Sequence to fold (410 residues):
Amino acid sequence: MTTTEHKPTTERIWHWLDGVPDPEIPVISVVDLGIVRDVAWAGDTLEVTVTPTYSGCPATSVIAMDIETALRDRGIGKVALKTQISPAWTTDWLSEKGRARLEEYGIAPPQPAGGPERCPRCGSAAVEKVSQFGSTPCKAHWRCTDCLEPFDYFKCI
Amino acid sequence: MTRDEAFFQFLLRMGDNTLILGHRVSEWCGHAPVLEEDIALANTALDLIGQTQMWLGLAGEVQGEGKSADDLAFLRDAWDFRNVLLVEMPNGDFGRTLMRQFLFDAWHSIMLTRLRDSKDARVAAIAEKAGKEVTYHLERSGDTVIGLGDGTDESHARMQEALDYLWPYVGEMFEGDAVDAEMAEAGIAPDPSGLRADYDALVGRVLAKATLTIPDSRFAHKGGRNGRMHTEHLGHLLTQMQWLQRAYPGATW
Ligand SMILES: [Zn+2]
Fold:
């Protein structure tokens, strides 16, 4: 992997990274989550720029390790992971595919209005907040007053 | 004092506030009155510890002695900490913990908003990131203070007691000294006294809704943010927090 002709294109690398699941919500990829900000070659080193979701999110280091492992498995020997905190991660960066998969998985996707549009299980709009904080830093805890099931809402940030 | 020395002190103040409060809040893990509150407190603590990594990481960089955020968190003794006394106060009951959180969150959110305009791009970036998280902290602690203050006779009495107990620790957050003057001069951080009017307005609004009465004394306990005199509580906290590095110096995993 030292000569230029063997360097995979960044487009191809983005595609590979789209196969790396988020460790806590495995139905979406790290690319869907919007935390991979840039992929670029610097000589024979591949630089991947990642931004954390929440500053204390314990998944951040696992994600970095998963990205590195995935790229090494594809034969990329030199990977440099760069962390970038500004501009701060926003749920606006979630992909459309990611939003749809979240909902299928039972997690209501973020809405600018600050609460879920509907219950991810039965589709009812009759929902109420239980707590602003849920099972991971990125989620809040809501409940459907029709089917009565509790569910996670991916917080808008 | 050079500008970098002042900058280092300022960063310690930011990072020690979040570190010590993050540790205090984490003491609730597994003990909160209901599961949702346990999770909310743990998430808040996690955010604060994450922010600490950024502030103390930058502090180590500015200090230039090759120290990491972990080195600064685990290898300093009580007199080198620069957090305000408010955040080292013991948790007390759930009401006092949430009152302490609210009194701090209100200051924190106003401070971080100002810091987004810092002339130091690294400070502005951390403030932007942390500010988003703190918006949620403030919303929750404010709502809880209102819920408990304007709640039952028992919860109201406990919240008023918490406010009376913690109010003398509020003033320190707005005390300026030579470090602050240097930071203001450099355009890195605002003079803390300039935050007081916004703070009083915000806190006044929430506490009025909570039907609580703000003590009319402005007496302030001081000595944390300049390290002159911490309360005895900080030492007890550090024996827990720093235990592993004290028992097994340099341990990594
Ligand atoms: Zn439902």
